[in-house]
Amino acid sequence: MNAVMEACVRCGDLDSAMKVFDEMSKRDGCGVDRVSYGILLKGYTNTDFPLGALTIRDEILRSGLKPDKTTYNTLIYACIKSGKTNAAIQFLAEMKVSSKWLEGQKKLSRPTAMISFQML
Fold it and tell me: PPR repeat ranges (predicted)?
């Protein structure tokens, strides 16, 4: 089902991706995982409302999952794209605090870092 969500996002149809996600989330659904959330994060960053990604981050935390490097990179990009530099800096700081959990993962993708620092 993640593939269906990904197809919807690539076609710019975030509403359909959300419907698939909601079906997956139901008790009798197949379940959602970090990949499912990542697809929605990407979907929001590709819309005219990239800060919608922040609501997905809240859902990730409520579900008990921990943000990974992809989550942080996408959130930072969404903040920069929206002109919310302070929020991007907060996510960078949060990533640094979470670095023990992220150990072994690249901390910030090169494109996100370049975009972030160009905007500062």
Answer: 1-27, 33-67, 68-98
